[in-house]
Amino acid sequence: MKLRKVMIIGVGNVGSTSTYTLVNRGICEEIALVDLNKELVQGHAKDLMDAASYRPSMLKISVRESTDCADIDIAIITLTGGLASKSRTEELAGTSRIMKTLIPDMMKHGFKGIFLIATNPCDAITYQVWKLSGLPRHKIIGTGVWLDTTRLRRILADELQIGPQSIDAFIVGEHGDSQFPVWSHSSVYGMNLNGYERVPLDFDALGDKARKMGFEILNQKGRTEYGIASTIAEICHNIFTNSHRALAVSCVLDGEYGYKDVAIGVPAVIDQHGIKKIIQLDFNAKEKEQFKHSVDVIKGYIKAI
Ligand SMILES: NC(=O)C1=CN([C@@H]2O[C@H](COP(=O)(O)OP(=O)(O)OC[C@H]3O[C@@H](n4cnc5c(N)ncnc54)[C@H](O)[C@@H]3O)[C@@H](O)[C@H]2O)C=CC1
Ligand SMILES: CC(=O)C(=O)O
Hints:
The structure is a single chain. The chain has 9 helices and 13 strands. It is of the alpha/beta class. It folds into 2 domains: 5-142, NAD(P)-binding Rossmann-like Domain (Rossmann fold, 3-Layer(aba) Sandwich); 146-304, Lactate dehydrogenase/glycoside hydrolase, family 4, C-terminal (L-2-Hydroxyisocaproate Dehydrogenase, Chain A, domain 2, Alpha-Beta Complex). The strands form 4 sheets. A 6-stranded parallel sheet has the order 3-2-1-4-5-6, sandwiched between helices. A 3-stranded antiparallel sheet has the order 11-12-13. The chain has a two-stranded antiparallel ribbon with strand order 7-8. Strand 2 (30-34), helix 2 (38-52) and strand 3 form a beta-alpha-beta unit. 46% of the residues are buried. Bound molecules: 1,4-dihydronicotinamide adenine dinucleotide and pyruvic acid. Its main location: cytoplasm.
């Protein structure tokens, strides 16, 4: 049986917490760590091997160069050229510069797997990775709005006093300010959200709360890590189990929703090869406008790369 191998590129807060989450969920058999900071990466590898020793099965934590990637199934991008403090786009210039050498070098060294991108601004970097890799678009996934969707479900769960897994609500668009919840398709078991508890919900306020949650956490603790680490682990789990579950992630569009040359958060069916199918929702007029705005915003960032 083939061993499942993941590479984490950038073992800072997000990369190390993601590795710890992958270890504890037993999602793969090897995690290869890559970072420019050689002391940090060696230290994390030893600490994480201690954690892995408590797992019932063999799990290898290795330290590699990113070019040692020919046998990797999923390469997870969690590096940054400089962390944002107010807007995710602050990272665009520094990080896109790193990508211009990192991705072609990996491709020259035989990378054949799936790229999973968490680095911000997530949608623009996802698109850039697709362009630089030359891989088919189904092999490129940005974590995108899946974390925002999870946040929205948690906020709604609090409001409605029902488990978040029972709420079918989600966010589409940019992992950033132009994202929006698709209220026209949100329900509890097919029941309109206002009908569930028979109390009118303040939909604008709920969407705002989810949209602002990332920076609310960032302002309080200086970084966000656990939420995105669980998002990364969840996407890897869905790939490795060939789940065919639909998640709202950043996908490269090629005509879906009437757009191309952009990566943006939309619901997509995940299988062992990556994105199996992009689900095309029937947006109402307001949502069509909001989606167009989000596409325009992301295209603006892509143009600046
Ligand atoms: N998509 C999402 O929902 C979230 C995304 N993020 C993003 O994740 C990224 C990482 O955030 P943190 O871990 O907090 O940053 P961090 O600064 O703690 O870690 C970044 C790591 O990348 C390494 N690095 C830089 N250039 C590299 C290169 N060329 N090759 C290998 N390693 C390199 C650094 O040495 C550092 O260890 C940021 O872009 C951040 O905005 C963070 C939280 C949530
Ligand atoms: C930092 C970030 O992108 C988030 O937690 O949503």
